[in-house]
């Protein structure tokens, strides 16, 4: 399973977008992180980088 973002905990900082080595994350129109499951390799970089702990891998 790809990384999952808890929309209620995301603070729209963009750190995950910057840190993702696969460019699998972008901010949507509401500035909330969204993971592209086709690109996500479940490396966990975004989980470690997220300051609000809004991302996890199932």
Automatic annotation (TrEMBL):
Pfam family, one: Fer4_7
Taxon lineage: Archaea, Methanobacteriati, Methanobacteriota, Stenosarchaea group, Methanomicrobia
Sorted UniProt keywords: 4Fe-4S, Iron, Iron-sulfur, Metal-binding
SUPFAM superfamilies linked: 4Fe-4S ferredoxins
Residues in 4Fe-4S ferredoxin-type domain copies: 1-30, 31-58
Protein name, as recorded: 4Fe-4S ferredoxin, iron-sulfur binding domain protein
Keyword Transferase part of the UniProt annotation: no
Recorded GO MF terms: 4 iron, 4 sulfur cluster binding; metal ion binding; oxidoreductase activity
InterPro entries associated with the record: 4Fe4S_Fe-S-bd (IPR017896), 4Fe4S_Fe_S_CS (IPR017900), PSI_iron-sulfur_center (IPR050157)
């Amino acid at each position: 399973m790809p990384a999952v973002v808890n929309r209620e905990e995301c603070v729209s900082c963009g750190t995950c977008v910057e840190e993702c080595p696969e460019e699998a994350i972008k901010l949507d129109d509401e500035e909330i992180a969204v993971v592209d499951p086709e690109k996500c390799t479940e490396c966990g970089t975004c989980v470690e980088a997220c300051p609000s702990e809004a991302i996890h891998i199932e």
